[in-house]
Amino acid sequence: MTITQPAQSAPPVPAPAGGGVPAPVPAAPPERRRSVPGRIRTLTLAAVVSLGLLFGLLALGSASARDALRVIGHDDGPQVVATAGLYFGLSDMDARVADVLLMGSEYGGRRDEALAQYERRRTEANQALLDAFELAAGDHAERLTIQSVLDGLGRYERLAGQALLLNSQSGHAAGTPPDAVLRVYRQATDLMRLELLPKAYNLTLESGTIVNRTHDTESGAIGLFIAGLLAVLALTGVLLLLLQRFLAAAFRRRLAPALLAATVLTVLGGVGGVSTLGAELNAITAAKRDGFDSMLAVARGRAVANSLHADQARYLLDPARADTYEHAFLDKSQSLIYAYGGNVEKYHETLAQNEPIQLGLLGEERTGMGPVFDAYRRFQEADGRMRTLAASGQAAQAVSAKLGELGTSFAAFDKVLLARGEQSQAAFTRAVAGGDGALDTMWRWAPWALVAAAGLVGAGVWPRLREYR
Fold it and tell me: Which parts pass through the membrane (predicted)?
């Protein structure tokens, strides 16, 4: 018979006599101890990655803004405005030739001055063509157009030179030159008006699309970067606050100074970046709208005005084509500053009523244009007096008015218009310089604030992680 011994239980541990120290609190389970550093590492990594994303968005947004400023303010924008001088230079060349032919053997000093001006404009036109060729890099069709203008300009110079030579040999009095001179000049001016000037005008418009496209593209991109920066900045702030709160709860501490400093630097760097990109967006818009667009409108306006001034000389120079040149003058006048009138006389009457200008190339410039409009009206009034003399058969007096009062009033109008262009140039320069300066200032501190914030996050977390080793 087998006897089974009862299992004996472990003897109870006697309580310490006299009430000793209570038993220690059991340690946290290993799973919980492992989860604390894991959560710290996860939150830290998320905060650092968020800071890196913030830095990247700031860098990309700054690059986009700087590229827009480079295109609009330093490279293509100024070149487009310079290219607009091509139309002005070409039209003024033909205007000076017409003046010299109109003077005949009289006005010796004025004739020499007009010839010197012709040479200066030819040099400026050649330089403008070089600028346009550089601007059209990669655009084969536009470069072919520029080459065509260069070839046409060479033909025009030969014809103009031949007309000037024949005019000098004829020795005619001021007024209409001999038929031999007119035949050659008609070929030259038709080449200029019907081929070269339209191509030059289109070159300016096509080149301007580069600036317009850059402005629209980069402005949209900067707006997206600003929105992205705000979103990531909010996310980074939340992550830093969560990390701060978790450390406070896990380690019985109210505050982690390093994390607090990191949060402050993150807010400063992020808000500074958003503010700077907003300022860049305003600077780019101001440079484009108040600077580039205005400069281009004034440059084109001066070119058209110079061309219609040349039509006044052609009107007196070639009576057989007087109606054609008068209609061309009216069309250009209405494209410059629109006023109702089916003929030149009606146009002058409408301008004399001093009604508000609503349309036209210069009508787009709404502010600060009062002096320009006043000078333009005086110029058109002088044109009316010159045409009255020509229509009454007083050809010599009409030529004198063209070279005297009319030339003086046009010079005054062009001077006021040029001053308007200089104001736009100053606004353009200020906007570009302000944008460049804001970017340079921001890059001296904002990105480094984010880098320092990332370093402080690590400095604030590392001592706590060491406690779990």
Answer: 42-61, 221-243, 255-274
